[in-house]
Amino acid sequence: MDPKSLSIIGAFVAVSMGAIGPALGEGRAVAAAMEAIARQPEAAGPISRTLFVGLAMIETMAIYCLVIALLLLFANPYA
Amino acid sequence: MDPKSLSIIGAFVAVSMGAIGPALGEGRAVAAAMEAIARQPEAAGPISRTLFVGLAMIETMAIYCLVIALLLLFANPYA
Amino acid sequence: MDPKSLSIIGAFVAVSMGAIGPALGEGRAVAAAMEAIARQPEAAGPISRTLFVGLAMIETMAIYCLVIALLLLFANPYA
Amino acid sequence: MDPKSLSIIGAFVAVSMGAIGPALGEGRAVAAAMEAIARQPEAAGPISRTLFVGLAMIETMAIYCLVIALLLLFANPYA
Amino acid sequence: MDPKSLSIIGAFVAVSMGAIGPALGEGRAVAAAMEAIARQPEAAGPISRTLFVGLAMIETMAIYCLVIALLLLFANPYA
Amino acid sequence: MDPKSLSIIGAFVAVSMGAIGPALGEGRAVAAAMEAIARQPEAAGPISRTLFVGLAMIETMAIYCLVIALLLLFANPYA
Amino acid sequence: MDPKSLSIIGAFVAVSMGAIGPALGEGRAVAAAMEAIARQPEAAGPISRTLFVGLAMIETMAIYCLVIALLLLFANPYA
Amino acid sequence: MDPKSLSIIGAFVAVSMGAIGPALGEGRAVAAAMEAIARQPEAAGPISRTLFVGLAMIETMAIYCLVIALLLLFANPYA
Amino acid sequence: MDPKSLSIIGAFVAVSMGAIGPALGEGRAVAAAMEAIARQPEAAGPISRTLFVGLAMIETMAIYCLVIALLLLFANPYA
Amino acid sequence: MDPKSLSIIGAFVAVSMGAIGPALGEGRAVAAAMEAIARQPEAAGPISRTLFVGLAMIETMAIYCLVIALLLLFANPYA
Amino acid sequence: MDPKSLSIIGAFVAVSMGAIGPALGEGRAVAAAMEAIARQPEAAGPISRTLFVGLAMIETMAIYCLVIALLLLFANPYA
Amino acid sequence: MDPKSLSIIGAFVAVSMGAIGPALGEGRAVAAAMEAIARQPEAAGPISRTLFVGLAMIETMAIYCLVIALLLLFANPYA
Amino acid sequence: MDPKSLSIIGAFVAVSMGAIGPALGEGRAVAAAMEAIARQPEAAGPISRTLFVGLAMIETMAIYCLVIALLLLFANPYA
Amino acid sequence: MDPKSLSIIGAFVAVSMGAIGPALGEGRAVAAAMEAIARQPEAAGPISRTLFVGLAMIETMAIYCLVIALLLLFANPYA
Fold first, then answer.
1. Considering only Cβ atoms within 10 Å of each terminal Cβ, which end of chain G, N or C, has fewer?
2. Looking at residue B43, what DSSP letter applies?
3. pLDDT in tens, J60-78
4. G63 touches F: beta carbon within 8 Å
5. Residue E22 DSSP SS3
6. Reduced DSSP (H G I as helix, E B as strand, rest coil) percent helix, strand, coil of chain E, to 5
7. What is this model's ipTM?
């Protein structure tokens, strides 16, 4: 296939995969946070802080994917 | 395949995958919130707040997918 | 394949995938709500409210899929 | 393949997938409702109400699939 | 492939998939009902009622599949 | 492939799939019934009744598959 | 492929699949019966009766597969 | 492929599949019997009897597969 | 492919599959026997006897596969 | 395919896979940290420190993938 | 493919599969033996004996695979 | 395909796979360390030490993959 | 493909598969040994002995794979 | 494909697979060691020793893969 077509494929595959992995990972983390707050409501502060740091690190991967997708669509060196 | 066809494929694949991953992740988070509220009804406030932040972060990924899908259909640089 | 054929494929793939992911996610959330109400019948109010917010957010993904499907069938820019 | 053939494929794939996802999700919700009623027989009222709302939301996805299937067979704009 | 062949394929794929998903879902619901009755024999009434409503909703999906299968075999608009 | 060949394929695929899904579902239901009777031997009556209703509903799906298989072999409108 | 070859394929696929699904289902049911008898040795009678009814219903599906396999080999209307 | 080749394929596929499904099912049943005897050594009699009936019914499926395999190799009506 | 090549394929596929299924099944049974003896050391006799009967029945399937493999290599009616 | 096309494929595959694996791994680690803080709020310090070291090591793998992706797009020795 | 090539394929597929199945099965059995000895150190004798019998039976399947592999490489009747 | 193209494929496949396996393994190990510190905060020292040795051994595999990837891109003997 | 190429394929497939199966099996066994020593530190002797025998038997399968791989590369009768 | 290309494929497949299997196995073992030390901090010595022996045996498989990969790249008898 020609590079233009592959760039389009790359754009949607990257965001698709970047939606599956991090979404499952974040879902798990959020679910655990729910249970943790229910068990120790007075520890909601450190739990939330740790959760947000973790979500931020997982979210970066979804953003790497989005960046590669936009880069393939609008700043592709080969297309 | 030509870029137009690939853009159509990309549109439906992106929303499809963007519906599977985040839906499962959110389902898990919501399920955990249910159990958490049942265990600590008086902590429903911080649980709901943390849940909504988490759902928002997971939902962004589904929206990335929708954005890429619409972008491929209506603002595709190669088609 | 030509864009018309791909649009038909896209329509049924999108609703199919949009039925699998959200259905499983919602099933899980509803199941957890059942258990939560059984454990704390007097907390049925906040549980139901949180459940309906969560279901609404998950349902939006199924609707994104339906929208893309209808859009591919009846307002396709390439077909 | 020509659009007519794809419409036939689309019709059976859509109902097939629309039968797998929602069926599993509803099965899980109904199973949880069984356990919930067994644990709190006097809460059968709110459990049933929440269950029926949830089943209705999951069932809509199976119906989206059926609608797309019938639409592909009898009101296909491309075939 | 020609539409006649695809209709035959559609017929058996639809009933096959329509047998897998709902069967697993119903199996799970029935299994939960067994356990529920064993835990609360005196609640067999509301458990059975809720079970039958749930089975009916799951069974409808198997019937959608059967309907599409028969419709493809005997009332196919394209074959 | 010609319709005759597809009918043969359809016949064995339908019974094969119609054997996997319902068999697993019924196996689960029967297993749960075993445990239920062991926990409440005096409730063997309502457990058996509910089990048989459930098995009957699951068995119908295997029979839909068998019917489509026989129908494809001996009363196929296209072959 | 010609109908004769497909009949041979059908014969071994049907018995193969008819051996996987029911075998797993029956294995689960028998395993549950073991545990049930161990928990309530004096209820071995009703447990065995229910088990044998269940195994009989699951076995019918393996037999449907065997029947279709033999029918494809020795009484095939198309070969 | 010609019928002779398909018969060879059929022979090894049938025994292969006939070894996977029943072996897993029987392994599960035997494992449950181990645990059952450990919990109720004095009920080893009825447990063994029920186990052997169950193994016999599962074994029949492996034997159906062996029969079809031998039948394809040595008494094939089409080869 | 010609029958000789298929016979070679058949030989290694049959033993491969005949090694996976029974090995997992036997591993499960042996593991359960370990736990059973640990819980009831004085019941090691009936546990071992039942285990060896079960292993023998599972092993027969691996031997069916070996027999078919050797038969395809050295006594193949079609090669 | 030519090296340019393969570089595009490589870029999106690497970030996609680099989003799935580490995201799941980090999600699991964060989830465990949530539960750990809930059980021992006073040990939030060492838990957070160990978590951040672990996340950093897992994140490096996602970054290896991003580096290879950018390297393939902008500093490819073969394209 | 010619018989020589197939024999090479057969050799590595057989040992590969013969390494996966039995290794998982043995790993499970050994793991259970660890737990069993930890629970009943004084029953280490019968546990070890039963374990070694079980491992021997599982190992035979890996050896069947090795035998077929060597036989295909060095004593192949068709190559 | 020519060796240059294969080297590019090799580079991204190796880092992709080298990101999935070790990331899941490390995620599991880190998660277990979280729980362990929560249960025995005073044993944080040996737990951390053992964890870091384990992570180092798992990380080496990701680095083997990175090394092979860079070696294929910049020091390939065949390209 | 020619025998030389197949031998190369065989070499890496055999060690790859021989690394997956036994590694998972050994990981499970070692994990169980950890738990066992933690529960009965004074039984570390027989646990370690049984573990090493088990690991040795599982390791043999990885070595069979390595042997076949080296044999295909350096002592292949067909290449 | 020619042997040179296959050697490149072999190199990255071997390290990829050699990273997945052992990484998961080691992750499991390390995770179990964490839990074991948390339960018996005074048994950290024998636990660590057994863990390191186990990790060494699992690591050997990853090294077999690396050796085969390097051997295919730099000392291939057929390329």
1. N
2. G
3. 999 999 999 999 988 888 8
4. no
5. helix
6. 90, 0, 10
7. 0.85
